[in-house]
Amino acid sequence: MSAVAGLVLAAGGGRRYGMPKALVEYGGCLLVERAVRTARAVCDPVLVVLGAQAVDVWRAADLDGATVLANKDWETGMASSLRTGLDGLRGWPGRVDAALVTLVDMPGMTPEALRAVAAHAAPDALAVATYDGVRGHPVLLGRDHWSGVVETATGDEGARRYLAAHQVTQVDCTGLADPTDLDVPPGAVPSAP
């Protein structure tokens, strides 16, 4: 079985939300705690990328043994967090064949969805969860693809451009998780990005 690392992207400032989503309480815990706990149920190691108010998140959150990476360029978008995480995994002392990427603002993510995508792990793997035919998270990036993803990731696109140019296994996770992300506080009216 391939070794799969969990990579939780939690660095954003949450401009539309009004605060970093890593610090948002949801269901009795912080979103970052929930995301790390979900990843730990499936992956070893788990790395969490922090940026906005990183010290506050680090102090407030129980990160359950996850390795914390600081993204000093977090304001440039999700791509910088993805690069930070993959660079951290490149130097990881143990064997890691693939990274399972998930986002902090998806409280409906489950270990079952992560397991379904992680089942495709291999150094040359690319896989993405789908929900009713729509691509979402988690995204599985085999080690052989990390350099290409790092080179092409820009802004808030993450690995989207790289994935569009390569064959990707789509894993139906409909019913395994809720792919909804929290862009604004409950009851708030979304504003233009």
Automatic annotation (TrEMBL):
The keyword Ribonucleoprotein does not apply. Keywords: Nucleotidyltransferase, Transferase. Signal peptide: none annotated. Residues 6-166 form the MobA-like NTP transferase domain. GO terms for molecular function: nucleotidyltransferase activity. Pfam families: NTP_transf_3. It comes from the Bacteria. Gene3D superfamilies: Spore Coat Polysaccharide Biosynthesis Protein SpsA, Chain A. PANTHER family: MOLYBDENUM COFACTOR CYTIDYLYLTRANSFERASE. This is Molybdenum cofactor cytidylyltransferase. It comes from Geodermatophilus ruber.
